[in-house]
Amino acid sequence: MPHRPFLRAWAAAAFALFPGLAALPAAARDDAFKIGLILPMTGQQASTGRQIEAAARLWMAQNGDTVAGRKVRLIVRDDTSLPDVTRRLAQELVVNEKVDVLAGMGITPSAMVTAPLATQSKTPLVVMAAATSGITEASPYVVRSSFTLPQVSVALADWAPRNGIRKVVTLVSDYAPGIDAEKFFSQRLLFNGGQVTEALRVPLRGPDFAPFLQKVRDARPDALFVFVPSGAGAAVMKQFLERGLDKAGIRLIATGDVTDDDQLNGMGDGALGVISSHHYSAAHPSPLNKKFVLAFEKANPGLRPNFMAVGGYDGMRMIYEALKSTRGAGGGDALLAALKGQVFESPRGPVYIDAQTRDIVQNVYLRRVERVNGQLYNVEFDTIEGVKDPGKSR
Ligand code: PHB
């Protein structure tokens, strides 16, 4: 904060000396470092936007809004999770607002349409949510703070056959991250001596899970493996139980997107015992995570942070550190260089940004839904350390 009065005094003196300056558009005079955060704040993916915005604001409340003497401004835009809207908003933010960094990206299609713009304008794009492996290859300016579906799916395909699960039906949302999850889970299961007997895909928008789950019930696999994006897990769980798949002896195994901390507590006791693999649980037992969860819940009563929140919180840290490295100067290429190779402790555990792939390397945890202090949590029982995205071609 100490620089603000100085800047204001400088601006006042400059306007007195050069009255023409005052006529400049606000964006041209404004020395703030701008982060254009594009998120789905309404529509099917709204919980992702709510979580990431809350986490970004928490980061700023805890770490101040001035970095290396430079005021930081967060500009939040709602893309309603429609990629055409994401593209238009990203263009406006780059061209009119002259943002220094683009961030957010609730779903893969949003990240994919923004990537070319990041390349053309040399603007770093910090992907905080979307999790298809290939996103980091869509632009050299993409850096990811979330995770990838291959990263978490493989762990579950290693766990399953060791625990009596050989015959599996997969059920994924029919778009890129779902295809990633299906492919990497089934390949690894096959390698481990198991088999995917049927691969079901449900539409991303407004899915009706009931007919698909009826098919699964009739197929009688040892387990059903599910990926649906954050926000859709409760509907799957409800239908799974209503159709009596649990009573038919079919186990539900899933990526942690399904047993999402944002919804888990509302899923009821039917969720108890569900095994999932993911990079973050609100129940992660580190002191740093306990502090993070407490602060998040205090600032957002009734909201438990999920993996989206952690992607947003860590993404903000990465941007702050990069700005610090450039001593407040910024600049697309300098920021990008400073984003690569960052190593830090996240609420999820130790992480680093692989300088070659610009993707996050992190622990993947196996978790079981349990009741803790009266609430449902994903309780971690095994850790696979330092997992790189297995989806990268290099
Ligand atoms: C994605 O669209 O990449 C995506 C969205 C939500 C998730 C995972 C992946 O939970």
UniProtKB/TrEMBL annotation:
Residues 34-370 form the Leucine-binding protein domain. Keywords: Signal. Pfam families: Peripla_BP_6 (PF13458). Gene3D superfamilies: 3.40.50.2300. Residues 1-28 form the signal peptide. PANTHER family: LEUCINE-SPECIFIC-BINDING PROTEIN (PTHR30483), PERIPLASMIC BINDING PROTEIN OF ABC TRANSPORTER FOR NATURAL AMINO ACIDS (PTHR30483:SF6). Belongs to the leucine-binding protein family. This is ABC transporter substrate-binding protein. The lineage of its organism: Bacteria, Pseudomonadati, Pseudomonadota, Betaproteobacteria, Burkholderiales.
